[in-house]
Here is the input.
Amino acid sequence: MPTNGRCLLASRPVGLPTPANWSYVEDEAPEPAEGEALVRVDYLSLDPAMRAWMNDVRSYVPPVQIGEVMRAAGVGTVIASRSGAVREGDCVQGVFGVQNYAAVDAGGLTPVDTSLAPAPAHLGVLGISGLTAYVGLLDIGRPEPGQTVVVSGAAGSVGSVAGQIARIKGARAVGIAGGREKCDWLVDELGFDAAVDYKAGELRAQLREAAPDRVDVFFDNVGGEILDTVLLRLARGARIVISGAISQYNADAPPPGPSNYMQLLVSRATMAGFVIFDHFARFPQARADLAEWLASGELKHHEDVVHARVDQFPEVFLRLFRGENLGKLVQALDA
Amino acid sequence: MPTNGRCLLASRPVGLPTPANWSYVEDEAPEPAEGEALVRVDYLSLDPAMRAWMNDVRSYVPPVQIGEVMRAAGVGTVIASRSGAVREGDCVQGVFGVQNYAAVDAGGLTPVDTSLAPAPAHLGVLGISGLTAYVGLLDIGRPEPGQTVVVSGAAGSVGSVAGQIARIKGARAVGIAGGREKCDWLVDELGFDAAVDYKAGELRAQLREAAPDRVDVFFDNVGGEILDTVLLRLARGARIVISGAISQYNADAPPPGPSNYMQLLVSRATMAGFVIFDHFARFPQARADLAEWLASGELKHHEDVVHARVDQFPEVFLRLFRGENLGKLVQALDA
Here is the structure.
């Protein structure tokens, strides 16, 4: 069997993770058992939520245990199958972990149709990121045509899709992102109606200008000061969708929550959290719509694909928290 | 015309109000204009929300302006009418302000049926407090039989009704209140299933014991640490109803918000604010149900009626923030 490089969780980070929080080991790729397939992992999905999985706290999935392979979704190629569900050479998606090879239950694999879009896009716009944007925006946020939708982390994997869906559905799409370059990209390439650069200061004034009719739906991936500022700009009956809180994941202690939460009362607004894995029933429709919008060109996709060896995962992952990625961050696993 | 004592807003408080934030003046009771009635104010409704009306900030009603009579709901007696809508001697309810006499549009007056309950109860269980509890719990919180409903400020005017409605609807009613006496009252008199004394410390442990199956609905009148602690104990799909935040109203600066708000995501929960004045359409049904439960004895009412002159309003009002009232705080206006 080939050599299998693997990143294991070595210790729980306090604050921002460092490479020392993982250990790298090499052993032999496993033999697939009956019903399993052996998958060579070609692409890793790098997501802010992975930071939360490193903490030993109750969440929507169990934490990764010390000594376990770091959890990650990926796209790979079946190189051996002991199941009728998949065949050698199939391109598949699953939760493979940060390693070169995974022996997994073949029944749990999702086939990847690369005629729709290249493999990395199946981790972004056609993967959990795109599904999160779709369900969060349309089922939880429920914008109506002409309403204003504000998206934070708008240049990220989920936000960039959420804002575009808002635009496709006839809403005014306003993105919040860090830096002029990202903001220009949102407006010029993705067709957002306006973008707010939170690094340029005067967030509240910028938001007032970008959302003159207040905010009907806020799709929040960031939390912190951005959430608190948008709370001051809600329209009556606004919906806040809590998709993530990347500004909070590396805090040593629980950071202060949104001071302005009583604006929920003033504005008769709702703040709702959701977890995409509760919404499997919506995936076929969501995937069909996303694929159609991709095909028509209404929806743009962008993956920031970084080629690196599996032992370089920590460095690539940490780009997320420096805001270095544009669109979906994907690690292509070099041999 | 008789002398009309009136409390005017004199200055905007920083932190807890003091009597100096109001000025007392006496003038002659006004002449009612065509279509108006002159009402002698017999009872004032004293509510935590009145503190928020003293701030010069955007809220669901305009702030009281400096020099204006302090806004308050009340029950009174029509002593002169220039409208066919009410007659001399009628007992009526309205927003009369902190004064002995008010000339008001007779069409906006609500008749008070004292055969249902004594007049002060029409400011509590049969008034805005009871309606807030009813709509907030049943329409926003939507508890199902067997679910756990936690109410903060449970010994207050809204909370004491909300918890009882939860019990009537077959939910497990858990109250959070300050002090053993209030907690005993909730369980022994009002039929709550359990009560948590936040002043006794160990709030999280007490809550774990009182709500072993976690919290499906949290009806929050208090905010602050209590909200943050309940966030850690949510059941999946929980609903948090933001009815008020008495712990926050006197803060000098915006206090930190709920640190644990990301539990909304973990628990797929919703936090919603509402304002009772949006729900007029529900009032007839709500009033009918509340009156029926009162008549059957399923719903207990309790008003803390303080007899005092109108110039003593500041001292009576401030009892709210010392947690001194049990049930609805009402000031009966002595001559």
Remarks:
- Residues 128-141 of chain A form the longest helix (14 residues).
- The first strand of chain A starts at residue 3 and ends at 9.
